[in-house]
Design goal:
heterodimer; A: mainly alpha; B: alpha/beta; 6-stranded mixed β-sheet; 13 helices; elongated
C-alpha cells in the first residue's frame, strides 16, 4: 500500500481517538441506537436534527457525530424486528423472517446476540473494505455507467425468483405491482403525472417508509391482536442470559456467510438507488440460495437468516460512503444530509477527498468502524433485558408500538397521505400474509422498478442499442439469466415435467381466488388510466401492468382450479413459504376477520381522532381506550403507562425533533387550543 | 382650576404618548415571545437549506420583539408543496416565513404550477443572492464556444423536462440554433455531474456557479471544463464571458431569454403569505434588509462560502410582476419552447 495512504489513515486514527471527538462519536451512537430501537423511526430524522449543530464543529468531529448516528441506527433496528416481528426500519424487514420465529420459540436472546455480532462484523468489514479500496475506487467507479447500473438493477430484480419462495406466480404479480407503485409520481421523461390521483402528496412518488411499515409491521401487529397472546407464551423460558453468547458463537460458526453477505452489502450499498431495504432481502436471498439446508429451515427460525440480513445492512454504511465521498452522489437519504455537512465545511466531494483531504476521509472510515464497535457493545450491555418485552401482554405492547408506527410513517413526508398509505398498505400486507402471498417481491419491485426505468431510458437515449454490448452489461445479464433459470430447472426436475397441468381440480370460488381477482381489477383500472399519457411516460407502466394483469389472472385461475384439500401437496417440501408462519392459523376464519377488522378499526379511529384533536392528545386517549376495552387492564397500570408514553412522545418528537404536526380540526376552530402541542 | 386643567392635559398627553408608542410597537408586541417558522422548500443539506439556516440564525435579532425562529424543511413537488402551504394553508399572521424555490415564477408563466399559487401575490421579503447560472462542456469536447455548439452536437444530462438542465438546451436550440441533445432521467445534479465525469454526457446546463467553491469551480480551475456562457447575472470572476440574454438577435428573443434567466435573479428568495398584515410585512422586510447587511451574518456567510448579494422585497416583487405581464404571444412561444 502507498505510504501516503497509510500515513493518512494513521493520522486520521490519531485525530479520531481524541477524547473530545470520541465523545461526539459516542453521543451520535447513543442517539442512533435510541432512534433505531423505535419502530419506524430511522436515522434520517436524527441526522436532520444534528446537521445544523455540526457547523460549529471541525470536520472530523462533525462527521464523527453524524456517522456515529448513521452507522448505529441499523444496529438497534433489529430489536423490534426480532421481538415483535416489527422492523425497526425498512432495513430490517428480512430479519423478521427468522428472528421473530426464534423469539416465539424462546430464543430471543440468541437472535439478538447473533444480530449484534453480525452487525458488528458486517460494519467493520464495510469500513475495512472502504478503507482499503478508497485510493483506487474512483477510476473503477468511473467505468460504471448507466447501462451497467441498469444491468445491476435487473439482476437485483431477478432475486424475485428466489424471494417468491414456493409461490412464483404470486411473487411475480407482487413484484409487478411493486414496480407499478414505484411509477406513481411525475415521470422524468415527459413530466406526466402518473397515477397521482391529482394529489400533491403523490407528485414525487409514494414514500418508502409508510409502505414498508404497512406491508411488514402492521400485519404482525394485527396478528398479535388477533391471537390475543404474548409473543412468547408465559410458560416458555427466555434465554436472556445464555442466549446472547450462543448467538455470538453462531456468528463465528457461520463466519463465511457473514463475509459473503457483508461483501454483498458493502458493494450494493455503493450503488445509488439501491437502498438498505433491498439489500437485506438480496442478502437473505443469497443465503437462502447458497446455504446448506436453508430451503427447509429458513423462515422457521434459522439463525443464519438473521445473520445474513443484519451483516449486510451494517456493511452497507461503509459502501454508501463511497459514492458520497468520491463523487458527491448520495447513496441514501442519510448520506444526502452528510453532503450538507460537506457543504458547510467547504469540502468538495471528488478527487480532493481522496488526495488533499484523504485524512478527513479516513476519519470517516474510522468513525464508522468505532461506531459499530460502540453500538454493538452498548446493545450487548443493555438489551439483554429487552428480550423480556416479548413476554408482555398484547394490550400493553400494541397501543405503544402502534402510536410510534403512526409517527414513524408520518415522518415519511410529513403529510396526511403518509397515514392513509400506512393504513392501505397495512390492509394489503395483512391480506397478503393471510393468503400466503410473498411480500418481499413487492418491496423489491417498488425500489428497483423506478431505478430500472430511469437507467433504461438514459441507456437507450445515450447509447442506442449498443449499450447491451458493453462487457459489464453482458456479464450481469448472464448472471441474471442463471439466477432465473437455475431454480426453475431444479423445480421442474423435482416435480417432473408437465406435472403441474395434471393437478387441476374443479373450480371453487374462495377468498384465496378473490384476492388476485381484486388485484387484477385494480391493475386493469390502472392500465386504463395510462391511455392518455404520452408514449415515453406509459411504455414501462404499460408493459409491467400487462405483466401484472396476466400473472394476477393466472394466480386467480390457479386458485380457482386448485385441487381440493384431499389432493396431495406436491413438491412443497423443497421450497419455503417466504413469510413468517402465521400464529393464528388455528383460529376460525370468522374470528380472524372479526378481530382483524377490529384492529384496523382501532387504527382508523386513531386517524379520526388525530384529525380532530391532534396527534399528541390522541396518544393517551388511544392507549387508555385500547387497554381498557381490549384488555380490561387495571387503571393503576393504564394511567401511569399512558402518561409516561405521552410525555415520551411529546418530549422526543415535539420538543427535540420538532415534527411539524398537521393542523387539527379543533385547533382550526378554536385557535386558543393551539397552545396544546400538535393541536 | 388652572391646575386642574393642566393636570388633565398632562394626563391626556401621557396617555396619547402611551397610545402612540403602543401603535408603533404593535409589531414588536405581536412577535414578542412568539415562535416564527421558517419553511425551506428543499430537504436538509442542500444550498437552499444552508442559506435558510444562515438567515434563520440572524433574522430574529432584527425582527421587532425578537421571536424565536425555527427552521422546518418542507420538500416536495419541486417546491410547490411549500409554496402551496405558505399561500393557502399557513396562518397569515406573519409567523410563517418561507424560503421558496427559484423556479416558482417561471413555472407559473409556463403553466406548470399545479397548485393555486400566484407568486406575484406573495409578500416577498427579498432574495439573499443574485446568482449566476452557466452552461459548461467538457474540455474533451470539440465545442469551445457557443458558436461551435451550433455546428457540433453536445449531449447534456438532465433530470426531467421542466428541470433547468433541460430547459436551457431546448431554449438555446430554438433561439440560437444550437445542437444540444438532452438525455433525461438523471436523479439530480450530483448524478449528472457524475455522468459528466465518466463521459456519459458532454455538458451540464443550468447549474449555479459558486465562485470559489464546488466541483464546477474546481474543474474550471483544473481546466477540465469550458464555460460557454453565463445566465442571469454576470459573475465578477467570469470576466467577459457572454450572458445568455446578450445573444438575442431581436427584442422578442431577448424577452424570452430574460424570462428563462429569471431563476437566477429570483435566487434564494424569502416570502410570507399573501394576506399577512402590511405593518408586519413592512417590519419583516426591514428586518430582512438589516439582517443581510449585518456584519455577523456576512462573517458566517463567508465561512460557509455563501455570497450575499441581496435583492430587496420591493425589487423582487416588481421583477416577478414584470415576468407575469409577458405578452400572450411570447408566453405561448415560451411554453412551446420547452414542450418535449
Amino acid at each position: 500500500m502507498d505510504p501516503t495512504v497509510l500515513s493518512a489513515a494513521g493520522h486520521a486514527l490519531l485525530v479520531i481517538v481524541d477524547p473530545h471527538r470520541l465523545f461526539y462519536l459516542f453521543a451520535g451512537v447513543c442517539m442512533g441506537l435510541s432512534l433505531g430501537i423505535l419502530p419506524g423511526i430511522g436515522g434520517v430524522a436524527g441526522t436532520a436534527l444534528l446537521l445544523p449543530f455540526t457547523y460549529t464543529l471541525d470536520p472530523p468531529t462533525a462527521f464523527a457525530l453524524l456517522l456515529g448516528l448513521g452507522a448505529s441506527v441499523t444496529t438497534a433496528d433489529p430489536i423490534t424486528a426480532i421481538l415483535f416481528g416489527v422492523p425497526g426500519h425498512a432495513a430490517s424487514a428480512a430479519t423478521t423472517l427468522d428472528g421473530y420465529p426464534l423469539t416465539q420459540q424462546g430464543f430471543a436472546g440468541r437472535a439478538l446476540g447473533a444480530s449484534y455480532m453480525a452487525a458488528l462484523i458486517g460494519g467493520l468489514f464495510g469500513a475495512a473494505l472502504l478503507g482499503l479500496t478508497l485510493p483506487v475506487l474512483r477510476p473503477i467507479m468511473l467505468r460504471i455507467g448507466s447501462p451497467e447500473l441498469l444491468a445491476l438493477s435487473v439482476f437485483g430484480m431477478s432475486m424475485v425468483a428466489v424471494l417468491s419462495g414456493n409461490a412464483p406466480l404470486r411473487g411475480l404479480t407482487a413484484a409487478c405491482f411493486g414496480v407499478m407503485l414505484s411509477m406513481i409520481g411525475t415521470d422524468p421523461q415527459t413530466g406526466t403525472p402518473r397515477w397521482t390521483l391529482d394529489s400533491l402528496y403523490l407528485f414525487d412518488g409514494l414514500p418508502l417508509v409508510p409502505l414498508t411499515l404497512g406491508i411488514f409491521a402492521l400485519p404482525e401487529l394485527c396478528d398479535l391482536a388477533i391471537s390475543r397472546t404474548p409473543v412468547v407464551a408465559g410458560d416458555k423460558r427466555l434465554d436472556t442470559k445464555t442466549g446472547m453468547l450462543l448467538g455470538v458463537n453462531d456468528c463465528f460458526t457461520h463466519w463465511f456467510l457473514i463475509l459473503r453477505c457483508s461483501w454483498l452489502g458493502a458493494m450494493l450499498g455503493a450503488v445509488p438507488g439501491i437502498g438498505a431495504s433491498v439489500i437485506d432481502w438480496m442478502s437473505y436471498g443469497h443465503a437462502l440460495r447458497t446455504e446448506k439446508g436453508a430451503r427447509q429451515s429458513f423462515g422457521k427460525g434459522d439463525i443464519r437468516g438473521v445473520i445474513a440480513a443484519e451483516s449486510a445492512t451494517n456493511a452497507r454504511e461503509g459502501g454508501a460512503l463511497v459514492p458520497t465521498v468520491a463523487f458527491g452522489v448520495p447513496a441514501s437519504a442519510g448520506m444526502a444530509m452528510l453532503l450538507g455537512a460537506f457543504l458547510m465545511h467547504g469540502l468538495v466531494p471528488g478527487p480532493e477527498m481522496l488526495d488533499k483531504n484523504l485524512d478527513v476521509t479516513y476519519t470517516m472510515v474510522w468513525s464508522i468502524a468505532i461506531a459499530n464497535i460502540l453500538g454493538s457493545g452498548l446493545c450487548f450491555l443493555f438489551s439483554g433485558q429487552l428480550a423480556k418485552l416479548a413476554t408482555l401482554r398484547h394490550t400493553v405492547i400494541l397501543p405503544c408500538v402502534l402510536s410510534l408506527i403512526f409517527i414513524g410513517a408520518f415522518e415519511g413526508t410529513r403529510q396526511w397521505g403518509d397515514l392513509y398509505s400506512l393504513l392501505c398498505f397495512g390492509v394489503l400486507g395483512w391480506s397478503m400474509k393471510q393468503l400466503r402471498w410473498p411480500r418481499p417481491p413487492l418491496v423489491l419491485g417498488f425500489i428497483l422498478g423506478k431505478v430500472v426505468e430511469r437507467y433504461l431510458f438514459i441507456s437507450i437515449q445515450r447509447y442506442g442499442s449498443i449499450w447491451m454490448l458493453r462487457p459489464g452489461v453482458i456479464l450481469l445479464f448472464a448472471l441474471t439469466l442463471v439466477s432465473l433459470l437455475r431454480p426453475m430447472v431444479r423445480d421442474l426436475r423435482a416435480r417432473g415435467w408437465g406435472a403441474t397441468v395434471a393437478s387441476l381440480g374443479r373450480p371453487r370460488l374462495t377468498p384465496r381466488a378473490l384476492f388476485p381477482a381484486a388485484l387484477a381489477l385494480l391493475f386493469a383500472a390502472m392500465l386504463a388510466q395510462t391511455a392518455s399519457w404520452e408514449t415515453e411516460a406509459k411504455i414501462v407502466p404499460l408493459i409491467v401492468g400487462c405483466g401484472a394483469l396476466l400473472f394476477g389472472l393466472l394466480a386467480a385461475g390457479a386458485e380457482l382450479w386448485r385441487p381440493g384439500e384431499g389432493a396431495p401437496a406436491q413438491a412443497q417440501s423443497d421450497t419455503i413459504h417466504m413469510d413468517i408462519a402465521s400464529r393464528i392459523a388455528h383460529l376460525p376464519t370468522a374470528t380472524k376477520f372479526l378481530r382483524g377488522g377490529t384492529f384496523f378499526g382501532w387504527l382508523g379511529a386513531f386517524l379520526v381522532s388525530m384529525a380532530a384533536i391532534g396527534l399528541i392528545p390522541t396518544v393517551p386517549i388511544f392507549i387508555v381506550a385500547y387497554m381498557r376495552i381490549e384488555g380490561r387492564e387495571r387503571w393503576t397500570l393504564v394511567l401511569p403507562f399512558a402518561t409516561a408514553m405521552t410525555l415520551f412522545i411529546y418530549g422526543l418528537f415535539d420538543r427535540i425533533l420538532a415534527i411539524p404536526w398537521p393542523p387539527s380540526l379543533i385547533g382550526t376552530a378554536l385557535p386558543l387550543l393551539k397552545a396544546i402541542p400538535s393541536v | 382650576m388652572v391646575r386642574g386643567i393642566c393636570f388633565v392635559l398632562a394626563v391626556l398627553t401621557v396617555l396619547a404618548a402611551l397610545a402612540g408608542g403602543a401603535r408603533a410597537d404593535a409589531v414588536a408586541d405581536f412577535y414578542a415571545g412568539k415562535q416564527v417558522t421558517l419553511i425551506v422548500a428543499t430537504p436538509p443539506g442542500g444550498p437552499y437549506d444552508l442559506n435558510a439556516r444562515l438567515l434563520a440564525s440572524h433574522l430574529a435579532r432584527h425582527i421587532p420583539g425578537h421571536p424565536a425562529i425555527v427552521v422546518q424543511n418542507m420538500q416536495g413537488a419541486s417546491g410547490m408543496l411549500a409554496a402551496n402551504y405558505l399561500a393557502n394553508r399557513a396562518p397569515q399572521d406573519g409567523t410563517v416565513i418561507a424560503n421558496l424555490h427559484n423556479m416558482l415564477p417561471l413555472a407559473k408563466v409556463l403553466g406548470r404550477l399545479t397548485v393555486d399559487v400566484d407568486p406575484a401575490a406573495l409578500n416577498w421579503l427579498g432574495n439573499m443572492t443574485r446568482e449566476t447560472g452557466d452552461v459548461v462542456v467538457s474540455a474533451r469536447s470539440p465545442v469551445k464556444t457557443i458558436d461551435d455548439a451550433k455546428r457540433d452536437e453536445v449531449i447534456i444530462g438532465a433530470e426531467s423536462p421542466l428541470a433547468l438542465a433541460s430547459v436551457y438546451p431546448h431554449v438555446m436550440n430554438r433561439v440560437l440554433g444550437t445542437k444540444f441533445r438532452v438525455v433525461l432521467g438523471y436523479a439530480g445534479f450530483a448524478d449528472i455531474q457524475n455522468a459528466f465525469e465518466r463521459g456519459e454526457v458532454d455538458g451540464i446546463a443550468g447549474d449555479t456557479w459558486y465562485a470559489g467553491a464546488g466541483p464546477q469551480y474546481q474543474w474550471y480551475k483544473a481546466g477540465t471544463i469550458r464555460i460557454l456562457l453565463q445566465i442571469g447575472n454576470k459573475s465578477p470572476d467570469l470576466g467577459d464571458l457572454p450572458l445568455l440574454t446578450d445573444l438575442a438577435s431581436n427584442d422578442d428573443d431577448r424577452r424570452l431569454l430574460e424570462l428563462f434567466s429569471s431563476p437566477y435573479t429570483v435566487g434564494k428568495p424569502t416570502a410570507v403569505g399573501p394576506h399577512v398584515p402590511p405593518d408586519r410585512v413592512a417590519a419583516l422586510r426591514q428586518a430582512y434588509d438589516a439582517t443581510l447587511a449585518d456584519p455577523a451574518l456576512l462573517a458566517d456567510a463567508a465561512k460557509l462560502g455563501i455570497t450575499i448579494a441581496p435583492v430587496s422585497g420591493a425589487e423582487l416583487t416588481a421583477f416577478i410582476r414584470q415576468l407575469e405581464a409577458l405578452p400572450e404571444a411570447l408566453v405561448i412561444w415560451a411554453r412551446a419552447t420547452i414542450a418535449p
